[in-house]
Amino acid sequence: PVLVKLREVVKTYHTPAGDFPALRGLSADFERGHLIGVIGKSGAGKSTLVNMLTGVDHLSSGEIWVDGVGVHALNENELALWRGRNVGVIYQSFQLLPNLTLLDNVMMPMDLCGLYHPQRSPQRAMELLDLVEMADQAFKIPSTISGGQQQRAAIARALANDPQLIVADEPTGSLDSATAETIFLLFERLVAQGKTIVMVTHDHSLARRMTRIYHIADGLWIDDEKDY
Ligand code: ADP
Ligand code: ADP
């Protein structure tokens, strides 16, 4: 079963220097329960694709369907609501709020979506921190823990509203390879539990372990067997 359908997705940036086509007609079916890799050089269009998949920016043309919702057709308000409840995002630089405890960081998406409940939310946040083996650090603030631990907390936050789709933009890019491995193992576990993860990466050795890999260059998919 397909969770995400991309149909001829085009994104053109309009700049003073002219129009720049960052995505030039991407189509793909991302299946449920898969760990999908997107790999490509700097400037290939990976961040732009992430912004389209997570609904932080509009496409120029084409369609994106996620779990039957035509994301391309949503207006600004609908998009914000849809994103908060249906997509978990994980960044290279973790992006935890520095003045909040890990527990409060994990509850933030519930709060933002109007799903906060005074008893259930802290309990669920603690369960999610437990899932990423960070429950014992729940009351620490991000600056007092390691990068790998921050990324674990960020994964718990991405799961807060129980999204089907998780989009991770170079989630291991700031981590040493041993720590990257622990994060990747966690992704494999989430996928085994039915989540669908789209992960942008530069790391070919991780990419080789994914269930599907897409290579992108100049805003188009390319065949790139020779990289292996
Ligand atoms: P990647 O994430 O693969 O490095 P990006 O998606 O960030 O690639 O960028 C793809 C291309 O689009 C690059 O040439 C980049 O300079 C350009 N680009 C990205 N964002 C913008 C923007 N907001 N305005 C103009 N050009 C952009
Ligand atoms: P990455 O580390 O993924 O390659 P970039 O450094 O290319 O990311 O871009 C970081 C952010 O800046 C992205 O949101 C991208 O859309 C934006 N961006 C990239 N290139 C340009 C550009 N030429 N003009 C405006 N914004 C850009």
UniProtKB/TrEMBL annotation:
<dbReference type="InterPro" id="IPR015854">
    <property type="entry name" value="ABC_transpr_LolD-like"/>
</dbReference>
<dbReference type="InterPro" id="IPR003439">
    <property type="entry name" value="ABC_transporter-like_ATP-bd"/>
</dbReference>
<dbReference type="GO" id="GO:0022857">
    <property type="term" value="F:transmembrane transporter activity"/>
</dbReference>
<dbReference type="Pfam" id="PF00005">
    <property type="entry name" value="ABC_tran"/>
</dbReference>
<dbReference type="GO" id="GO:0005886">
    <property type="term" value="C:plasma membrane"/>
</dbReference>
<dbReference type="InterPro" id="IPR003593">
    <property type="entry name" value="AAA+_ATPase"/>
</dbReference>
<feature type="domain" description="ABC transporter">
    <location>
        <begin position="4"/>
        <end position="228"/>
    </location>
</feature>
<dbReference type="InterPro" id="IPR017871">
    <property type="entry name" value="ABC_transporter-like_CS"/>
</dbReference>
<protein>
    <submittedName>
        <fullName>ABC transporter ATP-binding protein</fullName>
    </submittedName>
</protein>
<keyword id="KW-0067">ATP-binding</keyword>
<dbReference type="GO" id="GO:0005524">
    <property type="term" value="F:ATP binding"/>
</dbReference>
<dbReference type="InterPro" id="IPR017911">
    <property type="entry name" value="MacB-like_ATP-bd"/>
</dbReference>
<dbReference type="InterPro" id="IPR027417">
    <property type="entry name" value="P-loop_NTPase"/>
</dbReference>
<keyword id="KW-0547">Nucleotide-binding</keyword>
<dbReference type="GO" id="GO:0016887">
    <property type="term" value="F:ATP hydrolysis activity"/>
</dbReference>
<keyword id="KW-0813">Transport</keyword>
